[in-house]
Amino acid sequence: MDVDKLKAILEALQGTDVTRLTWVSGQETLDLRLGHPPPATTAVHAVPVHSPIASAVAAPQPVAAAAAANPGPSQAAQPAAAKAPADDRKTFTVNSPFVGTFYRSASPDSPPFVDTGQVVQKGQVLCIVEAMKLMNEIEAEHPGRLLEVLVQNGSPVEYGEPLFRFEPA
Fold it and tell me: What is the pTM of this model?
């Protein structure tokens, strides 16, 4: 591809909401992704219960136990994300690489990118996180079967917040 043509395409995209462009001309293919790549996700490792670190992490549990013993309006007001994750070491989560708004589909009329029980391949789009008016596709880093969607469609998400729970495929 001609460098001047490439510069013209990049200049035309400046100031637009376009985050990805695939251009095919004859035998040439150009695939552009604008913006910063999502930060690398980190794996969360289970800590054995008998370790000193696990004891320190387990210390806040009496508060949760007290809330369960005294059900009231404060317990009903807790968000669904506050649920304890399943104690299954054979699962992994896909976390949000941005602070933004979580969308399960490309538009309100479109079906979700993935549904519970579906097996996804590495690189398959799972959702969109809108950050600063840019629609960022979140792709699967590993193949797996979707066990649970952890966030409501249209909800705000924080950096590192778990979005999906998978079992390896």
Answer: 0.49
Label each residue of the chain as H, E or C: CCHHHHHHHHHHHCCCCCCEEEEEECCEEEEEECCCCCCCCCCCCCCCCCCHHHHHHHCCHHHHHHHHHCCCHHHHCCCHHHCCCCCCCCCEEEECCCCEEEECCCCCCCCCCCCCCCEECCCCEEEEEEECCEEEEEECCCCEEEEEECCCCCCEECCCCEEEEEEEC
Structural contact between residues 30 and 6, judged by C-beta atoms closer than 8 angstroms: yes
Report, as an integer, the average pLDDT of 134-161.
Answer: 94
Q: Is the pLDDT of residue 125 over 90?
A: yes
Q: β-strands 92-95, 28-33: how paired?
A: unpaired
Could you give the CA distance from residue 116 to residue 15 in angstroms, rounded to a whole number? 37
Residue 93 near residue 166, CB atoms below 8 Å: yes
Q: Give one word for 133, left, alpha or beta, with left for phi > 0 and alpha for psi -120 to 50.
A: left
Distance (Å, rounded) from C-alpha 24 to C-alpha 85?
A: 44
